[in-house]
Amino acid sequence: MPLDFTKPGIIKFLKEKYEHEKDQRVGWFLANKEKLIREATITDKNKGYSAEDIRRAPLEIFMPVLSGLYKVSAENRRKKVPVDGPVIGIAKDRSITPSPLMKPVEPSVSSILYEQPPKGGRRQYLNARKRKIPDEKYYFCETSANDIGWQWKESALPRRPPKYGRHEIILHEAPRSGPQPDPKHYMQLIPDEKCLK
Fold first, then answer.
1. 85, 122, 134, 191: which could form a disulfide with 146 (CB 3.0–4.6 Å)?
2. Phi and psi at residue 117, to the nearest 5°
3. 129-173, pLDDT tens digit by residue?
4. Helices (H), 41-165
């Protein structure tokens, strides 16, 4: 049960307790005064650190970590220098002509245009062309969307498909989709007297 601080007897009791605790604290301080003053004084010798030494100390701690990061970076860097293709647009007579954006199409792919429609034609040509990655079609990275996978074959980091792709989710969800009978609890009709009138 909490104390009622409005009663004069409890107020007097608490005031006496506060005074008693204050006297105990002052007594402890007076008993340990010399020890407290001795411990409070600085007895360390001046080590002669300058402001530059203090500023440089945190940097020196992280230097081994930084060298380790450089080593990891060197291992994961591209093994081959990325080559965007030959210098194009300058003829032998040193005249400047407009440079083409796309690499030449292989004869095997361009011959699809001249075949009959079941195996050839425009649609089959475009399907064969879209299967190539942008590095094989363009000299330079033409769009910002190509920045993501540009020259990924030269990278030392391994590329793998995602571990949990959409295919697995569709396989797990497929048996549950499609037309199915209603659940049993839908069959239990609750008669509404208002609707029957």
1. 134
2. -55, -35
3. 988 888 888 888 878 888 777 877 777 676 666 666 555 666 666
4. 51-76, 107-110, 122-130, 134-137
